[in-house]
Write a structure and sequence with these properties.
alpha/beta, Rossmann fold, 25% strand, Nucleoside_phosphorylase_sf, catalytic activity, Nucleoside phosphorylase domain-containing protein
Length: 223
């Protein structure tokens, strides 16, 4: 059965990220894209889009800073866990997106899986941030998952714009930004395949698989 218009809602913090995602969707299935604003400042727009697309799987898509030295600009990170100041989120559907990206012939970027850490402040250099077990750093993913809430499939996809050896600058003005935004556009087909795969009743058999994002209490996350 072909995907419906509301199979996928993409939430992008920056307008330039939303433009890239829309560019990657031209001539293909319709994908709902909402611009959330840096630090999720356009909360009302996100909530309105969620109400308009109640059955949609959600992908938080944007650029990020890598926290590991084996990543380079244009690589992508699929967040299996999002560690934010206010909560930790687990994304059971993340492995399916990573697999869809690797299967898609038109997507040639390296795919990393792991923890995405949300910072509540702008950093001048990625190397000054303690990485812990995180592979990427952003400023919105946890806040946006908070708006999405539990009960529907959601995933975080971030394209690497800077690495620990480079200063953090606007993604629109650094060479790494071009590679990152191009990667976001190229990820469109894999995102749509992922949304169809996690839709209810499409697990491939009679079993019911719940890919809904899960909020984890901060008190137990480091056990």
């Amino acid at each position: 059965m072909p995907g419906r218009v509301d199979d996928l809602l993409v939430i992008c913090p920056l307008a330039v990220e939303a433009v890239s995602v829309r560019a990657g969707s031209r001539g293909r299935d319709v994908v709902a894209v909402v611009w959330a604003g840096m630090r999720a400042r356009r909360e009302a727009a996100v909530l309105a889009a969620l109400r308009r697309n109640p059955a949609a799987a959600v992908a938080v898509v944007g650029v990020a800073c890598a926290l590991t030295r084996d990543a380079r600009p244009g690589d992508v990170v699929v967040g299996e866990v999002v560690d934010a100041p206010h909560a930790t989120w687990r994304c059971p559907a993340a492995p399916l997106l990573a697999a869809a990206l690797r299967r898609h012939r038109g997507f040639t970027r390296r795919v990393h899986r792991g923890v995405v850490s949300q910072s509540d402040r702008v950093v001048a250099r990625v190397g000054s941030v303690p990485a812990g077990n995180a592979v990427a750093l952003d400023m919105e993913s946890g806040s946006l998952l908070e708006l999405v809430g539990e009960g529907r499939p959601a995933v975080v996809l971030r394209a690497v714009v800077d690495t620990p050896s480079r200063p953090l600058v606007s993604p629109a003005t650094v060479p790494g930004g071009v590679a990152a935004l191009t990667a976001l556009a190229a990820a469109g087909p894999a995102l749509r395949a992922w949304a169809r795969a996690v839709a209810p009743g499409r697990a491939g058999d009679d079993s019911v698989v719940d890919y809904s994002v899960v909020k984890v209490a901060k008190e137990v996350r480091h056990r």
